[in-house]
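Table S7 (text form). Paired inputs.
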Amino acid sequence: MKKRLSDIKHAQNLMISGISSPNLEAKFAEMGLVSGKEIRWLFSAPMDDPIAIEVDGYILSMRLDEAKYVEVEIFK
């Protein structure tokens, strides 16, 4: 089932299935967020923004207004 990264609320293993904003594709690719990449949602700040995800062994902080453009699938 596809979801937006901004909709994930607890630690899960995820796979990026796409980026829904062509304007942000290059920026996300520089961060390592490309289709097919496995990531892990770690935690969110006290007010739920920003969130922290693990990408290729590093922790990336991302605001929800950008995370909504990252489409993900949940896997185990």
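Next pair, protein 2 of 2.
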Amino acid sequence: MQRLSEVKTGSVVKIKSFENDDIVLKLMEMGCLPGEIITVEKKAPFGDPISILVAGYHLSLRIDEAEKIFVESL
């Protein structure tokens, strides 16, 4: 497993779990649920924010939010 913040652009991954933190509820409300497939679409020049495709829509996450999501490669 790795953190979403470490995944390279163009990769497709599956959400496995979250780091225990207050932001988990916010992430789940945005469609970032365990088992959901994510495509990392773009990263800003300095890596923050990142753009992902999840649950059929585009979402931008700050790097500190992406660090809270543990994923596995498909």
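Strands lie at 2-3, 12-18, 37-43, 50-54, 57-61, 69-73.
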